[in-house]
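Retro notes, structure queue

What went well: the backlog is down to a handful. What didn't: a couple of records were mislabeled last round, so from now on we paste the full input next to the output in the thread. Example, using LysR substrate-binding domain-containing protein from Cupriavidus gilardii:
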Amino acid sequence: SPSRPGISSPIGLSISLSSPYATIWPPPRFLRGHAAAPQRRRDRRQHHRYHHHDPHADEGRGGTGERPRAGWRPLRREPLAWVGARGDTEGIAVPLPLVLLPDTCSLHQYVVRMLKRARVPYRVSHSASGVAGLQMALAAGLGISCLNRSAIPAGVAALDPSTASSLRLPALPEVEFCLLPPRRGEAPVVQAAREVLAEQLG
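Corresponding output:
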């Protein structure tokens, strides 16, 4: 709500981002600006679809292999990769043990769709509630999954081509992360935050 003349009012800024981006959040410059907007918060909930986002968020980022919609601002592209515990992939066999996010996640749905299309048997060996849990399960050797490059943690590595071929894993595309378009009547602080995010995450 507007503040009265001469009286400052704190401004809340809600930021919604896809789970893979949560692994590289926050940008250093955004941390330095925290004092200017102490009520800024982030929302680490997974965007289930590229075009679905939190209607209450001022900013949002999502990512899929689809073409960005009109008004969406591309930030970066990253390759997707089949990944597993580093140095512990020799025992992987069909049905493939998958480590996935919940089935409401677009990446979960994409992986399952790709494997079904390639007729590769699989089973869900572990379902993680978030990317951090998924990364720990992968590092512990509970199975394999699909991640974008910047979300691959220590102890996890992309499967080598020979392993991927022997398991009949389908080739994966790149994923594109985009900034949602501005809203009508957007506050100046949101516009400024949008430019910082585009600069830091692009």
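Agreed that this is the format going forward. Reviewer comment attached to the example: The domain at 79-172 is CATH 3.40.190.10 (D-Maltodextrin-Binding Protein; domain 2).
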